[in-house]
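Homework-ish question, so no full write-ups if that breaks the rules, but can someone show me the predicted structure for this set?
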Amino acid sequence: MSQTKTVEPRPYHHGDLRRALVDAARRLLEAEGPSALSLRAVAREAGVSPAAPYHHFKDKSELMDAVAQEGWETLNAQMAEAKTRDAGPHQLTALGITYVCFARENPALYRVMYDMVREKEALPEDAQSNKDSAYCMVRDTMVERGADPAAETHLELATIAAWCGAHGLAEMAGFKQFEHLKEELGGERAFLDAVLSHMGLFAPKHGAC
Amino acid sequence: MSQTKTVEPRPYHHGDLRRALVDAARRLLEAEGPSALSLRAVAREAGVSPAAPYHHFKDKSELMDAVAQEGWETLNAQMAEAKTRDAGPHQLTALGITYVCFARENPALYRVMYDMVREKEALPEDAQSNKDSAYCMVRDTMVERGADPAAETHLELATIAAWCGAHGLAEMAGFKQFEHLKEELGGERAFLDAVLSHMGLFAPKHGAC
DNA sequence: TTTCACATCTGAGCGCTGTACAGATATCTT
DNA sequence: AAGATATCTGTACAGCGCTCAGATGTGAAA
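A: Not a homework solution, just the prediction itself:
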């Protein structure tokens, strides 16, 4: 931020407290869940005083934003990997499954991610512009699978609809009421597959019912 | 606000503190938003000491559950009204719109409702059994609109898919990124309609794309 | 090298929170 | 009239987000 002797910003006392705090937060999040994620607990976990974080984050929500941001980047990466892994006609379904599985495997992180999104009332800033964002990946895949890229509004609406469905499923997949369906269908994965295909947006061309 | 000469269970000191607390909570929720909804603030609003609520609720989350429960009942009622109002072929869409509009008009309450649901990892207990629940209403409407009631699994999956989509849209409809779409389509209502119809679950029979 | 400016971290403290508990008070039962 | 019990208050405690004055380390200027 100040000098340019070496390549990196070269931190001062701690090493890189900002990084350490975000790491500590993610560790706590995984170990204790979102309710344990207090600023003081994070500082404790990182081995600094409760006031130290305020030199790197304006307030608690800014620290949470940093954690959430990393979550979005991880999600983007997993979606990209899924897209290259499955290039067949069910690519969209594969993306949907990947999205929901990410949420199911990182429930605490997913919650922090959407806490941020709800607070800001917006997806991450670059969601619609960054080619590598999950959102753009879904939209592009729709085009590759036959949607007309000239019908911009139509395409955008379809992407939003898919995103809404995936997010809804991500939040509800774990509900107790659906246990018997999972058993009947042979596991959670099959359940997710079935619900997604009922959304009619993730399977290329066989409508809804 | 204090006396009750009438039929009711005849409470002791306050009148019906439990009721008063839930009312106070809803008042606060609407006026100050969900972050202002502390147990102490609710007690203050109701004019009692911070410890008083503990004689009516095990802890804060039980009070929140009561608020959320009322929210679900209000939602159920509005869905029922919508169903009788619009009995045409777009009944399902009307239900979807009603759901999302409820969430958009009562954002704080909707959040408390889903806080409960996320905590319990389940929809309200009677969601799948109570005929008057929004969930059953959607499922029944699907049958009335042509779905095969014998294909139970299929029907259940379609209902879940629709619910997921509606919930996703309820949470995302206010996002800043979608402002231009709302303008282009001529208002938020048209936007909701468009996204819902892209889900392919709310319009009876014209697939997705 | 000494000095200085400043980034970083600590410790104490404020007002808030959820919750516990002992004691006061009102109501119901006998 | 007396006792049991439900209800409410006052006080207290630990934890929270956040602020601020002061200590401490660091890089740049003299």
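Now go work out the reasoning yourself. Hint: The domain at 1-57 of chain A is CATH 1.10.10 (Arc Repressor Mutant, subunit A).
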